Amino acid sequence: MRILSVVGARPNFMKLAPLYRALRGRDGVEHAIVHTGQHYDRNMSDSFFDDLGIPEPDYNLEVGSGSHAQQTGAIMQRFEPVCLDVAPDLVVVYGDVNSTVAAALVASKLGVQVAHVEAGLRSRDWTMPEEINRVVTDRLSDLLFTPSLDGNENLEAEGVLTERIHFVGNIMIDSLVYALPQARSVRAAENHGLQDRGYTLVTLHRPSNVDDPATLAGLLDALTTIASDQAVLFPVHPRTRERMAAMGWESAGQGDLRLIDPVGYLDMLSLVSNAGMVITDSGGLQEETTFLGVPCVTVRPNTERPITCSQGTAQLVASDTASVLAAAEAAAARRIEGGAKIQYWDGKTGERIADVIAGKTGRPAQAEDRDRVAHEV
Ligand code: UD1
Prior knowledge:
seven-stranded parallel β-sheet, 17 helices, alpha/beta, binds uridine-diphosphate-N-acetylglucosamine, 13 strands
């Protein structure tokens, strides 16, 4: 069986690594990696391959940045010849970024089966590019691997055949469990002169939070206020850095707000695990904080990961100064010592996915559906 995994952006890499390891030991499986080049800075891409032990990609499409149409179109144009050349039995896509939907479109139009890792998540917010990517990718996929049971419910409500849906758990937690001992030895907080639980860790990069200068200024005001009390460490995403420069934002110079470049996977895990609180709009951090039991203020009006609020440590808040400050004030009470226990967030999701993939007969699922529909008609 020939498998092509397609990844492109930072949150994809920690989802690929566990499946890469699980497939490596399987007889008769050839697994190649395509990097679209959606993310290309060393600290947004290569450092993750190093930290997670993923080999160099077999193909790099080097698409770089652009508008959604430019980026998605470039990935499609450059991935199609690779897909034709390799003639895979299965293309595996991850998460909800532009690389995910672009590769799923190419593969499905070539009649190649598609597997989606992290299927079924829904924010029901169509202003998010990721929601469009999630819904389209799931519609095109033959194998849908869900991280939590709300994913199964969403897919069933959309009419996806139940035999295509596999509840396997959260693959990102596999990477976390695998890397945590090493991450703890990195002692990233100590290297920044910070005490355990004595600082707030921040990431913000969603267009809805950073593209409007008034919204971004309000959030930065909240961070400045928190920093008058306690250190705030903020690894700044390139998009956010650009927006801050464009609006001419300068730190007020009071308080301990530290803007640093994006950090690698092990450093980030180390910083999250020791933080007093995390303020973020990242999907992955909502889940990592829940697993680690660290209070999380999620600066979004909705989430495709509701389990992080219902069973975890996260609270949704509006993107304004007062809401963030009120939530930050109340956050400590949401800490879960020892972390939240959620079904199949156990470090074994990669193996469960590999079991399903290796058990496939190779007969295209779409063709089976067509046969059945023809028969029923
Ligand atoms: C993408 C994903 C988002 C994910 C995020 C993680 C989509 C639609 N969005 O958003 O879901 O949470 O990745 O980071 O796919 N840039 C660089 N260097 C890089 C990458 C980006 O400087 O290596 C800058 C460029 O100015 C670029 C901007 O960041 O235009 C945005 O990058 P892009 O990949 O379009 O989207 P993200 O905001 O990173």
